[in-house]
Every structure is written in structure tokens, then in C-alpha cells.
Amino acid sequence: MDGRKLILISYDDSYDPAKTEACFNRLMEKKVFTLGFFVGTPTAVKYLPMAESNKIPLVGLFTGAQTLYVPLRHWVVDVRALRTLTKRASRWRACGARLGTRKSA
What we know:
This protein is mainly α. It has a domain at 17-80. It is 39% helix and 9% strand. The protein contains three helices and three strands. The chain has a three-stranded parallel β-sheet with strand order 1-2-3, with helices on one face. The chain is globular. The two termini are 30 Å apart. The model has no long low-confidence stretch (mean pLDDT 79).
């Protein structure tokens, strides 16, 4: 990025909210510029306030929990649609299938 190599640093929080602070602190010691790819709501809700207070972006949370996105959070970049949007898209696909439509955008 910007002429520099990216290094992926990974610590295992074991999907245990009690371990998130230790993992977060270890990452801060490494002076990371972003955090990413956390799985599940229980750990994500623990990482969120730490990331916000340190102004570190959270990218690619694998959870659809609206509490992480509503109200709009400046430091969260989601890669998964909210459940309400996913349900709506599924309904549109089902409706399109009944009409013989094969593609959607």
C-alpha cells in the first residue's frame, strides 16, 4: 500500500469476548493501521469501542448485527449486507425467478 508491503498479523481470540482486549492490545503494540476480519457479534462488539477510541478502522466484520452499524460508525467498513437487505434481495430473486428472470444487478 502506497509502495509498502502489507503484513498480515493474526491473533486468535477463540471467539471469546474475554480475550479481545489482550488481542487488541497486542495489535496496538505492533502499530497496525487497520484491523480486520473479525468473526461474530460477541467479539466484534468488544473490538468496536476499542477501535473507535484509538481511531483504527475495523474492516470486514463477519456479522450482520445492526448494533455495529447503526448509527453509522465512522471506523467500521462492512463487507456483509445487513440482514434486512439480504432478506429483501432474496425476495427479489424469488420474484424474478417466478417471472423467468435469470440475472439481477
